[in-house]
Structures are given as structure tokens and as C-alpha cells.
Amino acid sequence: MGRGTLFVLVGAFLWGTISFFVKNLYEAGFTPMEVVTIRVTVAAIILCVFTGLTSNKSLKLQRISHIKYFIGTGVFSITFFNYCMFKTIQLSTVQVSAALLYTGPAFVIIISLIVLHEKITRNKILSLLCTCVGIILVVEFFPLQDKTIPIMTIIIGLCSGIGYALYSIFSKFALQHYDSLTITTYTFLVSAIVLIPFFPFSKKGALLIQPDVYLYALGLGFVPTAIAYILYTYGLSFIEASKAAILSTMEPVVATLIGIFIFTEPFTIFQIVGMGCILLAVMIIELPSLSNRKKKVIQ
User: What stretches pass through the bilayer (predicted)?
Assistant: First the structure.
């Protein structure tokens, strides 16, 4: 397992813990958009302090025009997909939200082909198919039985997948000029600047100083946000965006397990099989391509 793969997988694992913090903040009285604001603001503070203490040079932009990369990662990706993801959790379950979010790899593969000119290999296609089957089973599109998922919930969930995909694309461009810590710091700083003016401090500011809420907010900004994104972005510097996106489907497995064991959400044998398909997809994408094997044999 390569270094890039390892960092992406660990980052995805940490992302999978997000539902624990989000669910508890909902119970405290915050809306999905308010939770997004809390997440990006806490992460921005942590990252700015850490970067300022350890590497002041990392906070210096090489060009003002490069802010476009961080508007892409911070607004069009982080802000947009977080809202859609949290809204889906509110409208359905952690499993449904996680599964719809991870239609992202399909969008990443398509956008990467057009924008980054990354090749679509046999392993990527096979891995993506396994991911899709896993998503269908985890989200319980099959078997539908006597319950259906509202179309609006599905649309919002798919939008979270599109927003998620854009992070890998914008980050690839930013990595040509900056390291992972700088990209992550500016991503959340830009997102926080955009969202803070809309947070109802007069109504809910007092909630933030309650010990339990404070700890959930701090945990949300630190574990599945600041650390997870630094690791994922660092991993992106070693592997293709499309491959990283497929590897990151480890998150819905973790999210589903948290939903089952912590929030006692119902689960079926189909969801277990679906999680197995997602894990299989991760293993397939790590296999060397058939063409590379042939080349080695010929050499």
C-alpha cells in the first residue's frame, strides 16, 4: 500500500466519524446550515493557529489570483456539499446520506477525464461498479419493499456527491502551488468567512458555550475536518483524484457502522453486503492494472 493510499484511507476513516458529532449538534438545536458553519469555523481557527505557530510561510499566497482555488474548495465544495450532506442526514438516515454522498467518485472520474485528463482504466471502472452496487444496497434502493426515499432527499444527496467531487478537482490545481496544510487552511478560512455572517449568534450563541455543545463543536472541527482534510489532501499529491475518490468510499462504511451501533439505526443483510462491495472496490482500485502486469512480463 502506497503512502498516498494510506493517507487517503485514514482521512476517509476520520470523515466517517462525522455523524456522531452532527447528530448531537442537531439534538442541541442547530440546523444543518448552522452545523456547517460551526464545522468550518472551528476547523479554520484550529488550522490558522496551528499553521501560524508552525509555518508562517504557509499562510502566504504566491498570487492573489490563486484565491480562486480556495473559493472552489471552500465554497463550491465544502460549503455546498456539507449543507447537502447534513440536510440529507436530517431528512433520512446517516446511511442514506453517506451512500448518496459517495456517488462522488463517479463525478470525480468524469470531471477528471475532462479537466485533468486522467485515464479511465479497467480497474477504475470495475471498482466504480462495485461502489455503485454497494451504494444501492446500503441506501436500500434494493429491495425497496414498502418504503421509498423521497425524490427531493435523493436530489439533495446527489448534490452532496457533486460538491464532494469538486474538492478533489480544485485541490489538484492548488497542489501545483501549495502544500496540503496551506490548501486545507485556506479552504476552511474562505468557507468560514462566507458563512459566519449568516450564523444567528443572537439566538444560538449561548448554546455554543455549553460544555457538551462546545466539545461536540470542537470535535467536529478537529477530527473529521481539520485532520481528515489535511491527510486526504496530502494523499492527493501522490495519487490520481479519481483513485483517491474511490478509496475514500471507506467513509460510508464507517458512517453506517456508527449509525448502527451508536444511534441504533436499523440495518439489513443487504446493507452488510453493500458495505462489503464498497470494501471490495477499495481493494480493486489498489490492484495493479492488467496492462502494467503485461508490461512487466514482457520486460
Answer: 35-55, 67-89, 95-116, 125-143, 149-169, 181-201, 213-232, 244-263, 269-290
- Tell me the backbone φ, ψ of residue 262, rounded to 5 degrees: -100, -45
282: cell is 477499495
pLDDT range class, residue 141, cuts 50, 70, 90: low
* Three-class secondary structure of residue 35 per DSSP: helix
Ramachandran angles phi, psi of 131, nearest 5°: -60, -45
Which residues lie closer than 8 Å to 264 by C-beta, 6 or more apart?
Answer: none
Helices (DSSP H) in 175-298: which residue ranges?
Answer: 180-195, 201-204, 211-221, 228-236, 241-247, 250-261, 269-286, 290-298
Q: Model's pTM, two decimal places? A: 0.82
Per-residue CA distances from 62 to 36, 59, 176, 177 (Å): 29, 10, 11, 8
The stretch 202-225 carries a mean pLDDT of 94
Domains of the chain, by residue range, sit at: 3-298
